[in-house]
Design goal:
single chain; about 475 residues; alpha+beta; Beta-Lactamase; Helix Hairpins; Heat Shock Protein 90; 3 domains; 5-stranded antiparallel sheet; 5-stranded mixed sheet; about 20% strand; binds adenosine-5'-diphosphate; binds magnesium ion
């Protein structure tokens, strides 16, 4: 668990990355430093070798040690200190050497001698001559294309070695130390960065299907984790809505179907017990059919609604002249409750063309007209007005009916919502008409609005996008 945590692996990655960087960096520094230090020595070795090889010293290059040392000291001075000098003839036989060489013989290796024969200077670092490595120069002196003499100068790299040892020591201490500090810091940083994740985990655990209203706390909505929590909350929101819809749907369906079923059962039982004459049975069937029709209507409407809400509503779009279609529909609406003697009028201010599915739009306007007629008492007035406004066709269905209380106004588009439950059952409405009207309007890219005043009447306005022939 611990080793699999993001915190652990983040820290590990920090540490490994830093270790690689530090090792590369320090090796680089080490190499540069060593190179630079050796170069300084090489330059000095060359100066000394050139001095020893100068023609002035010719007679002394075969002198005995004590004389040679004296000459070197006079001639080269302080630069000689710590240096071993030896001179050889062309065959590699030592002809003169400084006293210091007694403690250390500079080897004359095969590659150096080969290069010397070609007249090339050779620098070498000899590691196993003494306590510290020795840097040597092998300097050939040519005479008419032939190797006449060889000057070798060596110097201990003690100083360089010591400096480099110190540098290595510093690295050896500081690299593990900074790795340790870095890991500790990384561990804390990772912990800090991941703290909100733990919070989210804890609060997500509290969420169950029964408790979908619970939301994650979003400490900082701008950062990555805040966005994650926000996204999760949005998902929860949608889930909750879906759950609520499903719950309400089943509650609504059972509630709405129970009433007609109760009536159906009651009437059938009474009929079966008491009816004798064919007319009585006919009356029973007629009344049953009414309830059955009502139930079919409800189920039909509910199916349409769920289909539309799932996005499965398919519109058969065609170009429609709204004025013609509406005129016809208004004509038909006069048949809804003719006994009321309502004055139903239609005014089209201009011919209006839209793209739409008339089967659905017909339902929209029929529902509005049906409501207008149903909720307006005898002698009232219903008028339908068509014009266009800001790229939209505008249809207003105006009635002089009962009006809708402002508390109910925001709910009338909800499923099964009815202002006066008792009265509407008698009228045959089931509270789905406006839900359908709104859904179909919105499916057409339009919207539906309502203004109403109790006692004066209501205005339902439908906006549908105009058809602009390209
Ligand atoms: N024109 C109107 N005048 C008064 N009330 C209305 C009007 N249209 C709708 N309503 C109210 O809105 C409710 C919902 O309407 P609707 O969805 O068509 O259901 P239904 O007509 O089946 O009751 C109605 O029950 C009614 O109370
Ligand atoms: Mg209705």
């Amino acid at each position: 668990m611990f080793f699999r945590s993001i915190r652990f692996s983040l820290t590990l990655w920090y540490a490994v990355t830093l270790a690689v960087i530090l090792v590369l960096f320090s090796s680089f520094i080490f190499l540069i430093l060593r190179n630079q230090l050796t170069k300084d020595f090489d330059r000095e070795l060359l100066t000394v070798a050139e001095a020893v090889a100068s023609p002035t010293l010719e007679p002394f290059r075969r002198a005995g040690p004590s004389v040679f040392d004296q000459v070197l000291e006079d001639f080269i001075g302080t630069r000689l200190s710590g240096k071993y000098v030896q001179v050889m003839d062309g065959s590699g036989r030592v002809t003169a050497s400084s006293k210091s060489v007694e403690e250390l013989r500079i080897p004359y290796g095969s590659s150096a001698s080969r290069r010397a024969a070609e007249g090339k200077v050779t620098y070498e670092t000899k590691v196993n001559l003494g306590l510290y490595p020795v840097r040597t120069i092998t300097y050939p002196m040519m005479d008419g294309g032939r190797l006449a003499q060889v000057v070798q100068v060596g110097t201990s790299l003690k100083g360089v070695a010591e400096t480099l040892e110190k540098v290595i020591l510093v690295f050896a201490v500081s690299i593990p130390l900074s790795l340790l500090l870095w890991s500790v810091g990384g561990w804390f940083l990772a912990g800090r960065a991941l703290k909100p994740v733990d919070l989210i985990t804890r609060s997500a655990r509290k969420i169950t299907a029964e408790n979908l209203s619970h939301r994650l706390e979003v400490a900082n909505p701008q950062d990555e984790i805040g966005r994650l929590a926000q996204t999760f909350n949005d998902t929860l929101e949608r889930l909750e809505n879906a759950f609520t819809r499903v719950r309400r749907f089943s509650a609504d369906v059972s509630h709405e179907l129970r009433t007609p079923l109760t009536i159906l059962r009651g009437e059938t039982e009474v009929g079966l017990r008491w009816a004798r004459e064919p007319d009585e049975f006919r009356e029973l069937f007629r009344s049953n059919l009414e309830e059955i029709n009502r139930m079919s209507q409800i189920i039909e409407a509910l199916l349409e609604l769920s289909r539309a809400e799932e996005g499965g509503l398919r519109l058969e779009l065609a170009e429609l002249d709204l004025d013609g279609h509406l005129a016809e529909l208004v004509q038909q609406s006069r048949l809804i409750e003719p006994e009321k003697g309502l004055r139903i009028t239609f005014t089209a201010h201009e011919p209006v063309a839209i793209r739409g599915d008339w089967l659905r739009l017909r339902q929209v306007f029929m529902n509005l007209l049906d409501n207008a007629v149903k909720y307006t008492s005898a002698g009232g007035e219903v008028s339908v007005v068509l014009d266009s406004c800001n790229g939209y066709a505008r249809v207003m269905v105006v009635d002089s009916g009962s009006g809708i209380p402002s508390d109910d106004l925001s709910h009338i588009f909800e499923r099964f919502y009815r202002v006066d439950k008792a009265r509407n059952r008698a009228d045959g409405g089931c509270g789905l008409g406006l839900s359908l009207a709104r859904l179909f309007t919105e499916a057409h890219g339009g919207r539906i609005e309502v203004v109403s005043e109790v006692g004066k009447g209501s205005v339902f306005t439908v906006y549908l996008p105009l058809h602009t022939s390209a």
